[in-house]
Design goal:
With 246 residues, this protein is α/β, with parallel strands linked by helices. The protein has one domain (8-245): Vaccinia Virus protein VP39 (Rossmann fold, 3-Layer(aba) Sandwich), CATH 3.40.50.150. Helix content is 34%, strand content 20%. The protein has 10 helices and 7 strands. It has a 7-stranded mixed sheet, sandwiched between helices. Helix 4 links the parallel strand 2 (65-70) and strand 3. The protein starts with 7 loop residues before the first helix and ends with a helix.
């Protein structure tokens, strides 16, 4: 876990984006916030697992009673400036410091691929979610249609802390069998990891390949099939006790 130090936020995914309003990073967090408000119980409890610099959970403070955890104390320090109404705590996804069935909504956005034992984290997600509670889950998509064009330059391979990359079917099995989830929807985030082909300007490729993903993010309307993007996004609900035992 010492890989996630202050330097991490300057050299990997966070270094590729601007935190300015209306940047790609801002739109991504806005999109997940829309999903949480649309499918989650307003006024209920919400947990973000792996909150990073706190920009997503900070957007949700007016709609939910929010909490967040991260293993990176530097990140949590930064998050406190933008998520002032949230309960923030240093903790790992494999051992969440909350009682059973504490939350109505749990978000885990691009965290699971960093974990050596992701099944432990998925079991914890199921433990802290209330029956019927909402899970928003995302991870790099090994079945992305354009991954073969990128080969070893694909975005999922660029971060050396991505130690648990699995095909979508394997993640869905874990969510159902280990997390006790009922999967409602699986979709993608679009092709934003330009360039995909040589010679064509990157700005033009962003329009050609990334236009649909951008439209989905801006509109908040989910329509991209599972293979049409670099990330797989899952909307699921925690099954009840009778469903789990059955």
């Amino acid at each position: 876990m010492n890989a996630f130090d202050e330097n991490y936020f300057r050299t990997h995914t966070y270094a590729r984006v601007s935190f300015a309003r209306f940047s790609q990073y801002w739109w991504s967090n806005r999109f997940y916030a829309i999903l949480a408000r649309r499918h989650g119980r307003r006024g209920g409890t919400l947990l973000e697992v792996g909150c990073g610099l706190g920009h997503l959970v900070g957007q949700l403070e007016k709609s939910f009673k929010t909490a967040a955890v991260d293993v990176n104390r530097h990140a949590l320090g930064e998050a406190r400036a933008v998520a002032r109404a949230s309960h923030l705590e240093a903790a790992s996804a494999e051992r969440l410091p909350f009682a059973r069935e504490s939350f109505d909504v749990v978000i885990i956005k691009h965290i699971i691929e960093h974990l050596p034992r992701p099944e432990l984290a998925i079991a914890e997600l199921g433990r802290v979610l209330r029956p019927g509670g909402l899970l928003l889950f995302s991870t790099p998509n090994l079945e992305s249609l354009l991954r073969p064009l990128k080969r070893d330059r694909w975005i999922g391979y660029q971060d050396p802390t991505h130690i648990s990359l699995k095909p979508p079917g394997a993640w869905l099995d874990l969510l159902r069998e280990t997390g006790g989830m009922h999967v409602l929807r699986v979709f993608a985030d679009g092709f934003w990891d330009v360039p995909y082909v040589p010679l064509v300007p990157a700005a033009l490729q962003k329009l050609i390949f990334g236009g649909l993903g951008g439209l989905q993010a801006v509109s908040g309307v989910v329509f991209l099939p599972r293979r049409w993007g670099e990330s797989m996004i899952v909307v699921a609900r925690r099954r009840g006790a009778e469903e789990t035992s059955g």
